[in-house]
Amino acid sequence: KTKLVDGQGSRCRNWSPIFIMTQEISELHRPVMLQRCMELLKPAILDTKATVIDCTLGLGGHTEALLEEHPELTVIGIDRDPIALKLASKRLERFGDRFIPAEATYDQIEQVLADIGINAVQGILMDLGVSSMQLDESDRGFAYAKDAPLDMRMNQDTGETAADLLAELNEKELTAIFKNFGEERHAGLAARKIVEARKTNAISTSGQLNKLISSVIPVAPGKTSGHPAKRIYQALRIAVNDELGGLERAIPQAIDALVTGGRLVVMSYHSLEDGIVKRAFQEAAVSSTPMEMPMQLPGTSPKLSVLTRGVERATELELSQNPRAASARLRAAEKLEIF
Known about the structure:
Largest sheet: 8 strands, mixed
Distance between the termini: 33 Å
Strand order of the largest sheet: 1-4-3-2-5-6-8-7
Shape: globular
Radius of gyration: 21 Å
Low-confidence stretches: 7-23
Number of strands: 8
Oligomer: single chain
């Protein structure tokens, strides 16, 4: 069951006061490719009392812009992180019941809509990956640049931590995670080093993990940025939060939740995510009638029309203002009438 929360985010625990004391909520996260997302969603929600699902609410930057530009729009904001939900709810409380927060994962679209009592929506936005707030909050363990407990859960109330995986999985399992989710060439070496090291001491902090990985994964010649453990962190985060499995389950639900003419906009941040989105769009953009059939079967026409030509990237201007947009990959599609 998903958790619908009120406008004050009452289902969420208290957030660290340092955020409120040192900066405005709106300054904690700069929405990636905001204007392009708005442009792509606009034809589906213009001049109508439409509903959009922001499947990855974060701190609410995309949702705030949508609600400001479209005075009759309602946005359902989904996020698994109760801290983000509470901060976003505070930021968006001026919009009243036009903003509906829900504590859930983005592969629970169907359940969220059922809980609210809505059959279909005009737009869906997915801004995948880890948020700026999660990266910057030192006790979450997402970033290799800060020595912190290896948690990496987007919802710290449930599930195993990255430290748990490092303590419990065998060498073969760790190698598979680092190779499949991090595309790390030295996955086997890293896994072997971790298994050896944990015999003496538990690997519970990013500082410990950084030291281990740096001893077996060399810095690429000629490169001055990035850390040898970068791909290991990505792999652990994906595994802890089942990000790729969730995305594979979410895209079909998102397509089914759209009205005819509704639009789906997805931003991914690495090739594994983008590959899932690309394949899902391609499959939905062609008839599901078997090739050997002489005519198209009823109900098998294409579900989507792809709007973007290949993958779109952030502009040079945005990159100069928001370096975290550098890895963003945007794809969008429109729901077709099925016959």
